[in-house]
């Protein structure tokens, strides 16, 4: 066990965990922040996406020992960011969600995309969101919502 | 007396020929020795290159030297999962960058390999065709030694690259797979790889003939 001090959504959190513990489980089990979801555990589905120093990151495969002092942003904190707010509003407006399980990860990836590519093409969206799976197949609405968020940001 | 004079005349006439022949033989022998040494060095250099090639085309190296829009993974060199794509700077695309999973070091507990600035080799350094087949030894050699494609590296720089570049050295410390087993390493040790590169560089980075 080791003690780690994390910056999660702007707040300092201290956890005492095994260094090999994935960040996802630190968030969910230690910090009780269950907005970030467990999907596959091997970074294949994107449900666990958070931002590490602004970079969309699959939290299920990153051991806590490798997080370092990078700030962690989760779905619980994404509304603090104007792009995050635009994406959330667009998600509601376009009624994207069906079962909702993958949507935390979808939103975190969409925000990361729009921060680097404020006017994404269909190809940009398909490539950037290609690692986020949705069993309900809400992909068309996700694309519409990302474009709507891009419009709102201008 | 007459016989002696004839002998002197013969010596006078033929001595230069004999001397010249002797000198000629000596020069030819020296040239032959030099030629043999050069041939031997070239042969050794080409043999060393084949050792280098065996490493470059091993999965730990060639999986990120693709000619396509995606990296590969595994010893069977299958397409990287999760729809990972190359992106404009060989580092993925926003929200799906290489570093979104691959950290600065291997993540042993989760089986994700890692190293500093994890990324694909540029397309100019592709060692495969678009059907994911490794290029020939001659073709890879031409690619690796072409300074317009290899970030302007000469032989000495290539040697340094093979000795110390973090993602090159990673191939000999590739970490564990998600199932806990160790990833395979290239067919030579890193020391053998560097030694082969040094012999190839010393021979003037020769490339095999052919396509």
Question: What does this entry look like structurally?
Answer:
The complex is a heterodimer of chains A (154) and B (211). Chain A has 2 domains: 75 residues, Roll (Ubiquitin-like (UB roll)); 75 residues, [2Fe-2S]-binding domain (DNA polymerase, domain 1). Chain A has 5 helices and 5 strands. By secondary structure, chain A is α+β, with helices and mostly antiparallel strands. The radius of gyration of chain A is 15 Å and the shape is globular. With 211 residues, chain B is mainly alpha-helical. Chain B has one domain. Chain B has a two-stranded antiparallel ribbon. A two-stranded antiparallel ribbon of chain B has the order 3-4. Chains A and B meet through strand 4, helix 3 and helix 4 of A and strand 4 of B.
- Mean residue pLDDT of chain A: 98
The number of helical elements of chain A comes to: 5
In the CATH hierarchy, what is the superfamily of the largest domain in chain A?
A: Beta-grasp domain
Beta-strand content estimate of chain B: under 5%
Give the number of DSSP strands of chain A: 5
Biggest interface, CB < 8 A: A-B, 33 and 25 residues
Question: Which class of the largest domain in chain A in CATH terms?
Answer: Alpha Beta
What summary fits the major beta sheet of chain B?
2 strands, antiparallel
Number of folding domains of chain A? Answer: 2
Order of helices and strands of chain A: EEHEEEHHHH
- What is the oligomeric state here? heterodimer
């Amino acid at each position: 066990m080791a003690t780690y001090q994390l910056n999660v959504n702007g707040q300092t959190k201290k956890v005492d965990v095994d260094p090999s513990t994935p960040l996802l489980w630190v968030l969910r089990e230690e910090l009780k922040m269950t907005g970030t979801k467990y999907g596959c555990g091997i970074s294949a589905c994107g449900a666990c996406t958070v931002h590490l120093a602004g970079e969309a990151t699959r939290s299920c495969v990153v051991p806590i020992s490798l997080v370092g002092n990078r700030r962690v942003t989760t779905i619980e904190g994404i509304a603090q960011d104007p792009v995050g707010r635009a994406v959330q509003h667009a998600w509601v407006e376009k009624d994207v969600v069906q079962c909702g399980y993958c949507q935390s990860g979808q939103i975190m990836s969409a925000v990361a995309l729009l921060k680097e590519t404020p006017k994404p093409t269909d190809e940009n969206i398909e490539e950037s969101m290609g690692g986020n799976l949705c069993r309900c197949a809400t992909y068309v609405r996700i694309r519409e919502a990302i474009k709507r968020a891009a419009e709102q940001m201008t | 007396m007459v016989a002696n004079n004839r002998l002197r005349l013969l010596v006078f006439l033929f001595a230069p020929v004999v001397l010249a022949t002797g000198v000629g033989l000596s020069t030819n022998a020296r040239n032959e020795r030099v030629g043999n040494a050069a041939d031997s060095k070239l042969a050794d250099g080409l043999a060393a290159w084949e050792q280098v090639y065996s490493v470059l085309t091993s999965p730990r190296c060639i999986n990120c030297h693709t000619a396509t829009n995606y990296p590969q993974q595994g010893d069977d060199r299958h397409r990287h999962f999760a729809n990972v794509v190359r992106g404009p700077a060989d580092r993925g695309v926003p929200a799906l960058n290489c570093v979104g999973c691959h950290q600065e070091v291997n993540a042993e507990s989760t089986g994700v390999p890692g190293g500093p600035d994890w990324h694909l080799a540029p397309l100019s350094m592709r060692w495969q065709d678009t059907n994911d087949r490794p290029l020939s030894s001659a073709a890879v050699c031409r690619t690796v030694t072409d300074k317009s494609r290899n970030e302007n590296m000469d032989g000495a720089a290539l040697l340094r690259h093979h000795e110390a570049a973090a993602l090159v050295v990673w191939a000999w410390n590739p970490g564990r797979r998600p199932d806990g087993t160790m990833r395979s390493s290239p067919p030579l040790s890193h020391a053998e790889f560097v030694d082969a590169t040094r012999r190839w560089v010393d021979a003037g980075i020769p490339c095999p003939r052919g396509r």
